Amino acid sequence: MQSVDLPKKINSFRAYQDTYQRSVSDPEGFWAEQAETFHWHQKWDRVLDWDFSKPKVEWFGGGTLNITENCLDRHLESRGDQTAILYEPNEPGGEVINLTYRQLHAEVCKVGNALRSLGIGKGDRICFYMPMVPELAISVLACARIGAIHSVVFAGFSAQALADRVNDANCKIIVCSDYNRRGNKNIPVKEVVDDAIALGCPSVEIVLVHKNTGETVAWNDKLDVWYHHRVDEQPLTCAPEVMNAEDVLFILYTSGSTGKPKGVVHTCGGYMVYTAYSFLNVFQYEPGDVYWCTADIGWITGHSYILYGPLLCGATTLMFEGVPTYPDASRFWQVCAKHRVNQFYTAPTAIRALMARGNKFVEGHDLSDLKVIGSVGEPINEEAWEWYHEHVGKGKVPVVDTWWQTETGGMMISGLGGLSPQKPTFAGYPLPGIQMALVDKNTGEELMGNPESGLLCVKFPWPSILRTTWGDHERCRTTYFTTVAGMYFTGDGARRDADGMYRIVGRVDDVINVSGHRMGTAEVENAINEHEGVIESAVVGYPHEIKGQGIYAYVIVADNVAHDDALREEIIAMVRQEIGPIAKPDKIQFVSELPKTRSGKIMRRILRKVAAGEVDQLGDTSTLLNPEAVQEVIDGVV
Ligand code: PRX
């Protein structure tokens, strides 16, 4: 196999500007040049074929590859003994695991063989419901090795949410762990899978159970198979499935403004090229650096920037099992010092939570190896940005505020560590190849000047754009490609300043962002409405000091039900059951009616203002059907 040759790394802001120009004037030439650096079985015969109106996007059509050969095999010669995955467990004194590229390759091959021995092959869907253990990384890569499609479900989701996702993709197998220790909690992971199966998952033929803590679990001989029983004796090599560039690599469910979460689909070739290119450039990764992204592999950040991007670039990627506040709020900084972390990537919600605990937790830890610190998932407020820069970056380490989405596959707007000008709360400039646009929400016209504010859109395809939503292409079209004709609409609003730098304002649809997790208000409302005492509900986000946004629920309940805290607890329990703890409302206000327009639509704008404590800014309420409802809402605010 050809030796490793990485995409080109930009090394100055001037070079960024030149590269950007080139990427826009000749996108196909530009991306073909990046793609050349990977191992393809057969080279593509067309770089790009696209039509946003369908939508259809195909990159590197006719090309064939396996992404895991690019993550693993091609590094064996040059860095086989270098650590690929550096695993830091939940307990500070627990065993650190270093998996070299050679070991990771062997482990992935063993699991690939095990999956094949269970009858899993190209195109089959595998659901992963696992904590942050090395076996998660290994088996996700093994899935890609044999051409199966992974659907990783964050292990904090409820049995119902898991079953919904498993059934949407008709997964043939679920891979899970027995238990999971996270902070001081002991979480019965397999039990949730058992509950999901009991709710009905007819497509599931096997549950492959990884022994993590070793506690006893209920066992179903018809479905359950121990991971180690299947994996341990397997051969150390596994022929990779040769995939077309546009074959599906994975599905990842994410929330939208309507209905159930949708399965965002990413494909092999373009996703590979873009995650590697963006990783290398944003983090300015140098061989030998230790890189740490604190996300969970259950989210897109973990897919693209714990696993694929770093491994494609031959990086050492740190994987952390625990939480930022266990055993105390210095854990992140202890881990940075212990492993001499060079690039650190986390979310504003974690920064705010740690900032609130006081500076003493960050002081005294040697953070002198940090070269770039990153932020992702939600807008970072100025105070958090400054704290991060000053106390973690010691005033000199560049901060990259990376804006992107599950649908974009990789980082879209961000500084390039140390090269770009930085402004607190601004994500900055688009990456090469990313043609952003601001669009006037009333006219649908692109806003060309600076400064400007509008709907954040993308005009031209990039290699890791979503290709469809699983099982429902029309939903993909209407959600992303019809709001603004001829463009991909992100769902976000943004401002571009006089220098052309972007600042993300936040979602303009009914999606809220709670601790960096995307939540559809309709989804939470549906869960609340499952409670038999509830007649109707409306959920909005409100500013929350740590979480960014909190969940505020206005609930109408039946007359014969007591409007008390016991009912609030029951409603919260219902949401936990339907979705999981991340969706539980922070505040519940009982009301007798909701302000509605004459056409019967809930006036969420008013509810948002009331929840935010901005009752003096309600705006025009003259179109309301029931203006008296507004006063009741204001009077009862919690
Ligand atoms: O609103 C934006 C916000 O998170 C949304 C995407 O969420 P998700 O698909 O879960 O992916 C999160 C991790 C990539 C966006 O529509 N968002 C993400 N990053 C930023 C952000 N908002 C502001 N600044 C960011 N850096």
Put simply, the count of helices is: 19
Helix content: 25-40%
Ligands? adenosine-5'-monophosphate-propyl ester
Strand adjacency order, main sheet? 12-11-8-6-7-14-15-24
Question: What is the makeup of the main sheet?
Answer: 8 strands, mixed
Rg: 24 Å
Instruction: Just give the CATH class of the largest domain.
Output: Alpha Beta
Secondary structure elements and their pairing?
Blueprint lengths: L12 H13 L1 H9 L10 E6 L4 E6 L2 E2 L1 H5 L4 H4 L3 E6 L8 E4 H17 L7 E5 L4 H12 L3 E4 L6 H10 L4 E5 L2 E3 L2 E3 L1 H12 L5 E5 L13 E3 H5 L11 E2 L3 E7 L7 E6 H16 L6 E4 L6 H13 L3 E5 L10 H8 L4 E4 L1 H10 L14 E5 L5 H11 L6 E4 L33 E4 L6 E2 L4 E7 L9 E2 L3 H8 L7 E9 L5 E6 L3 E4 L2 E4 H9 L4 E11 L3 E10 L7 H14 L8 E4 L13 H8 L16 H8 L3
Parallel strand pairs: 4-17, 6-7, 6-8, 7-14, 8-11, 11-12, 16-17, 16-18, 18-19, 19-20, 30-31
Antiparallel strand pairs: 1-2, 3-13, 4-5, 9-10, 14-15, 15-24, 21-22, 21-23, 23-25, 25-26, 27-28, 29-30
Helix pairs in contact: 1-2, 5-6, 7-8, 10-11, 13-14
The site of adenosine-5'-monophosphate-propyl ester has 22 residues, from α11, β20, β25 and β26.
